[in-house]
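Please fill in the sequence for the structure shown.

STRUCTURE ENCODING:
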């Protein structure tokens, strides 16, 4: 096995630690006196450094170490937090993120960060050198004292941790005759270590490159299954020294302490010739000749005591699963769900007691399984949103603007595949709001606005969709300027412009190559961005709309499908065609008289609980041919909702509720109005799924 097998885990953990650093740095900027926040940042950086060193990414480890020195000085009150220091630390975190993303893309993680390193060194050197030297010397003296104490203790105090059979004793004896050293190594993992098996693997990887492992306690199988507390023992033969082995093993992330005992060869000579001596006597012999102990930098004094007093360890409650495996699981379950629908139909036709009972029980079990399968893929949008506070902070500094970012609904869940794609479009939209939307403090004062602008990023569920909105209280869209630019670029003709609505003019800013920026900057105004946003969102089956009022602000609203492959729907019938309406969009169903229908602004409406609700006749929308016109004086209506808007979908009859598998219409049937997909029913027929949101624009 190679370390590359743990690369994906390293990348994910590194991203989490860097995100934690960014969030805590933003907190520290607001509360510069709170050293507990610095401690949290230091711990994340320290763990990241160890992981990077273990995986062989020295540049990443080195930069993290330089940043860690500054954080250590701050938490020990040697350096006082100020804006300049925070800027450099933020800059370091940005470089670290670039390195990790480069590694994720198959690179080596190397970046030219010399300028940042020099800044970190200057900050560190700005403090009295004697303080740092004295502290370092004191720490070295403590560490030396620990090792010296271990070495000075009589050998009788230390006992062999492992028992050896005759073969193992012979192997060690013969190895010693060939100038190999025999060691017993005890490794203590940190109490908060979540992936113990991974750390054990990394320890064995180092050992196997530098010698031979004779045995371990617990056994390798139990170590792989994490059936141990926080420490394990290894018998090892190598030509390396005890000190070098200790240093190598301490580079493994989340290793708290390493004790390397050099075994006296005389013990094995004696025991090899006296095979009948009980194991208890072997363990009681003065066996240890040399001991090297190392303790993690993070907890140099208390770690040993904690490990000695520890009686239990909480096992990990989470695992990382490749998204492709979830895709395969989802596809298999979709086929199972289709077969379930078919089986329910057959059972209803046969009407056999035991068959009906078995099918009902199986259906309940599959319902529970379905909930688990669907929720496994759902991820909070917070995983995307959490990158933006730091980005807005930096943009506001670059543009000399005062901007507050508010995040609402970060707990809203979305399918993982959509989460992976939505990040870049949101970056474009937020940059657009910060650069084009929010005015400078001077302009805002002149308009009677607060100097500090506000950008709100919010997410919420509506029906079978998730809406993500970016709202700012900035200048809004200058329609005259947009229209003039569109005419000059040839995006629209003069004749077209005469009949365009405000909404259509707003959406011109998403045309390819369109930009209203007077000055091209690093933030926006390069003529690309919003057209890419629109293309990406539409490729995910969503759409984007813009509402803007000049000098008041703008709202960019993104509608995204949950992409849940299995949804609950209400099946309805129009003539001989069956349609599925997502249950999450439905408020209720109703039967109305023809005389209840009113006309308002050339639109047929009804009075629904005191509200005027427009009617949408699906037979007209989908051009359903009728053999005989239905005129019994009644209409079946499905009341659906999109945000605060209501609409009544008029159908012929209701069939009933059912869970169906959502299937794409494929590449040949893209952009079909008001149809979001199709499904295969239990009787083998195909039903189209109605996109209620498209009908309520």
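FILLED IN BY: designer on duty
SEQUENCE:
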């Amino acid at each position: 096995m190679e370390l590359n097998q743990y690369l994906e885990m390293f990348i994910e953990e590194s991203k989490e630690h860097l995100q934690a650093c960014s969030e805590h740095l933003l907190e520290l900027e607001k509360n510069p006196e709170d050293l507990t926040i610095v401690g949290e940042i230091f711990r994340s950086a320290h763990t990241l450094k160890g992981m990077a060193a273990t995986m062989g990414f020295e540049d990443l480890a080195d930069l993290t170490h330089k940043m860690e020195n500054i954080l250590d000085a701050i938490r020990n009150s040697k350096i006082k937090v100020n804006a300049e220091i925070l800027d450099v630390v933020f800059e370091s975190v940005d470089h670290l993120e670039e390195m990790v993303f480069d590694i994720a893309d198959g690179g080596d993680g190397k970046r030219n960060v010399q300028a940042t390193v020099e800044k970190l060194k200057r900050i560190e050197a700005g403090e009295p050198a004697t303080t740092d030297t004295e502290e370092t010397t004191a720490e070295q003296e403590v560490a030396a004292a620990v090792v010296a104490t271990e070495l000075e203790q009589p050998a009788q105090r230390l006992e062999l941790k492992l028992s050896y059979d005759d073969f193992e004793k012979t192997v060690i004896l013969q190895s010693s005759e060939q100038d190999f050293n025999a060691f017993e190594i005890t490794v203590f993992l940190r109490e908060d270590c979540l992936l113990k098996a991974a750390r054990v693997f990394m320890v064995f990887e180092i050992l196997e490159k530098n010698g031979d492992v004779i045995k371990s306690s617990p056994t390798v199988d139990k170590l792989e299954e994490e059936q141990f507390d926080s420490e394990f023992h290894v018998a090892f033969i190598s030509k390396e020294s005890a000190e070098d082995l200790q240093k190598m093993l301490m580079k493994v992330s989340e290793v708290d302490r390493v004790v390397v005992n050099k075994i006296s060869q005389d013990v094995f000579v004696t025991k090899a010739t006296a095979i009948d001596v009980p194991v208890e006597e072997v363990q009681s012999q003065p066996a240890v000749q040399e001991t090297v102990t190392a303790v993690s930098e993070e907890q140099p004094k208390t770690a040993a005591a904690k490990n000695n007093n520890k009686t239990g360890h909480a096992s990990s409650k989470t695992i990382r699963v490749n998204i492709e495996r979830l895709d395969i699981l989802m596809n298999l379950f979709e086929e199972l769900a289709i077969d379930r629908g078919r089986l329910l139909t057959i059972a209803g036709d046969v009407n056999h007691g035991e068959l009906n009972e078995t099918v009902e029980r199986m259906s309940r079990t599959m319902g529970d399984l379905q909930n688990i399968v669907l929720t496994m893929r759902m991820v909070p949008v917070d995983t995307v949103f959490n990158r933006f506070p730091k980005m807005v902070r930096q943009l506001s500094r670059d543009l000399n603007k005062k901007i507050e970012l508010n995040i609402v609904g970060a707990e809203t869940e979305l399918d993982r595949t959509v989460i992976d794609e939505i990040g870049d479009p949101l970056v474009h939209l937020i940059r657009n709001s910060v650069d084009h939307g929010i005015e400078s403090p001077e302009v805002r004062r002149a308009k009677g606005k607060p100097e500090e602008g506000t950008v709100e990023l919010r997410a919420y569920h509506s029906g079978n969709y998730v809406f993500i909105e970016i709202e700012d209280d900035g200048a809004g869209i200058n329609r005259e300027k947009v229209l003039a630019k569109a005419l000059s670029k040839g995006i629209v003709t003069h004749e077209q412009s005469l009949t365009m609505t405000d909404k259509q003019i707003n959406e011109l800013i998403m045309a390819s190559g369109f930009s209203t920026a007077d000055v091209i900057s690093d933030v926006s105004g390069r003529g690309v961005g919003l057209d890419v946003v629109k293309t990406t969102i539409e490729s995910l089956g969503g759409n984007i709309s813009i509402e803007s009022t000049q000098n008041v602000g703008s709202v960019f609203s993104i509608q995204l499908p949950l992409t849940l492959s299995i949804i609950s729907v209400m099946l309805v019938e129009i003539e001989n065609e069956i349609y599925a309406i997502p249950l999450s969009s439905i408020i209720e169903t109703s039967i109305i008289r023809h005389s209840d229908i009113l006309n308002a602004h050339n639109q047929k409406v009804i009075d629904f609980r005191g509200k005027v609700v427009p009617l949408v006749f699906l037979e007209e929308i989908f051009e359903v041919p009728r053999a005989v016109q239905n005129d019994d004086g009644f209409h079946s209506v499905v009341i659906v909702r999109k945000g605060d808007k209501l609409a009544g979908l008029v159908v012929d009859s209701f069939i009933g509720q059912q869970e169906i598998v959502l299937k794409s219409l494929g590449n040949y049937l893209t952009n079909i109005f008001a149809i979001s997909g199709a499904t295969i029913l239990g009787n083998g027929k195909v039903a189209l799924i109605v996109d209620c949101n498209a009908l309520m624009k």
